Structure formats: C-alpha cells, structure tokens
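Collaborator request, handled under Task 6.
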Amino acid sequence: MRIMMLNYEYPPIGGGASPITRALSEELARDGHAVDVVTMGYGKLPFREDLIDGRLRVFRVPALRASPVRAITVEMASYVLSALPVALGLAARHRYDLIHAHFLMPTGVLAVALKRLTGLPLVVTIHGSDVPGYNPDRFKRGHRLLAPLWRQIVRQADAIISPSRYLGGLLQRGADVPVDVIPYGFRLPEAGAAPRRRRILFASRLFPRKGAQHMLQALAGVDLTGWDVVIAGDGPMLAPLQEQARQLDLDVQFPGFVKGQELQDLYASSAIFVFPSLHDNFPVVLLEALSAGCAVITNNVTGMPEVVGDAGVLVKPHDIPGLRAAIVGLMGDETWRARLGESARRRVEGFSWGRILAEHLELYGRVAGRHTAYEVDRSLVSDPRNLL
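Structure tokens returned to the collaborator:
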C-alpha cells in the first residue's frame, strides 16, 4: 500500500503522538509499504528526508513554530495552509491508497480538504486534545467555537481509530460514529545493562494535568535518604514545580527535556516511576516505563488502567495520602518492586508492533476497498514536480 501520513508534529518535535506517528510509519515501511509523511517544519530541519530504502519519506513544510515542545493555534493553522499544496502535489504525482491523519484538529482540517480535492479515503487517529472534554486545561474555548467544524471532520472520516476505549467513548458522546480501538504499538527495547538505582522518576511534558505537582505533594515529609527524585521534561509547569520543590524542602533534579538513549537509560536505571496524570489517553511514557521494568504508580482514571493493567499500582486522582502510601510502600519493599518490574515487561509484550500493525493494515484494507481510483485535478497544483 501507499499511505499519506499527516501529523502537524513529528520527531524531533512534539509530544506523545509524534513518536507514535513515526513508529507506525517506520513499521509500515519495514513491512514493504510506502509512506509519505507531511508534517511541520522547525528550525533547520530538512524539508525532505528519505528513510528505510526510500519507502518512508518525510516532508516538513514551513510553519510558524517557535517551540519544539508545544504549538499554539496560529502555528497549527500555518501548518495546515503550508501543507495543503505540498500534499496535493504528492497526490498528483503518486497513487495513494488512503490518507491517515493524526488528530481531528488541526490535522483533520487539512485531511478533509485533501479528501474533497482528491477523493482519497480518510482514516483519522484521535489522540486526546482533539476530543472535546478530554483536556480540562487547554482548548475548551476552541472546542466550543469550532464544534460545527469538528463534527464535520468526524463525519467525513471513513474510519476513526482510538488508542483506548476511554477516548473512543468520549468522542462518541459528541458524535454518534463507530470507533475502532487500536492501542499504540511498542517495540520492546533490550533489557538495559544500567544498574537499577533507588530513584523515583517522573517523565512527561510539564502541564498541570500531568500531575507532577501531586507527586511532590506526596513526597513532602517522606524520608528520602538514599533516594533520588527526578522530574524530566519541559513545559509551562517547570518553574512552578521548581519553586514547589524548594518550598517543600525537596531535593529534586530537573534535567529538562530528555530523549533518545538518555531517556531510555533513565527509565532503565530508575526503581519507581510515578505518573499521577489526571487525564491521559494512552500514555507513551507508561509504555516506556513498563518496558524498562520500573515499578509503576499511576492514576486509575481515563486511559491509564488500559495501559498498566495489573502490572502497576493504581491510585485515585488527587488522593495525596494514597499516592504517598503507594510510593512509601514501594520504597520499602524491593521484592514488590521486582515483581512489578517482571509483570511490566510481560504487559508491554501485548502491545507489540506485530499485532498492532496487523490491525492497522486490516482497517486500511477495509477502508481502501470501499473506494474507487481517484484522479487529482492538476490545475490545483502549479507544478508538483518542482516541489517533490
């Protein structure tokens, strides 16, 4: 198959859905399929990259992006406007089987425009912030203003994928449409050789809903002798978290945005991973921590239980005494930590890309099989060969 993959974020920029989009694209290319990704440019990143023997091509269009971590509305809109002629040029030159867009907003706007202009079938994966009611601290006003457009995008999609039952149910509150639940895939890394240290780790983008502030509250007054506390990540909560740690007299390391092998080593050498998020769809950080054999503590709401299952400790959101009890309990019980670590790696094996890729391809086949061949009106594109 030949797939046009759309996401306004793609590594090295963006959060959880960004590496998931890359992983799916790479797995498809390794399986022999052709994938063209149209994403947002940033800094000195090249306009085009050819990877995996040319079966994966990444096109980064000019955009008004100022941060590698987070994009604001005007920056997202600049991607949609800049990506449309590039994507049309690609569709005029290559015969795609379908479009796979990530996020109803903003990428879905681009994807629906392409569908109308090309007739290509459209698959959309939702990730959380694009679903009304998911994110309490961002986009509430935007979702209200754009509700008619949001519903139109949902109706135009030939299939909608949700990584979790929780998020799929949330979408269906606003639109009566079928949803296919396909979890995020994960490639289990080799067991790390780094020695396990007495470290309590939090890793995520630092937004209020991610809950790092609750972890600090839970650690207040706990005897941390011989233990390190690390909050890895960047975002608007960084300075407030540093001040909170100072006021609570907690010795906390803030290494900033960590990625790649450095992040993998950080997971592999940490004993306990704490992620008290209030709202999350299918957190990649939990998959990463589980795969590294960490003893995981997270909240028992939204999509977190679907990731962790019985391989971690679940607590109620905002329950600071309960969170403190879970942390202290694991700190004092090495056998319990080891048992959870073994369960964690077994749990992640259930999200192997072999199974997840097969589920995507089965859905692609169903969607593409319902559509006839298309022809792009070349008058819409001045000369796609000059672009591509």
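The cover message to the collaborator said: "The first strand starts at residue 2 and ends at 6. Residues 14 and 69 are 5 Å apart (CA to CA). Please let us know whether this matches your experimental observations."
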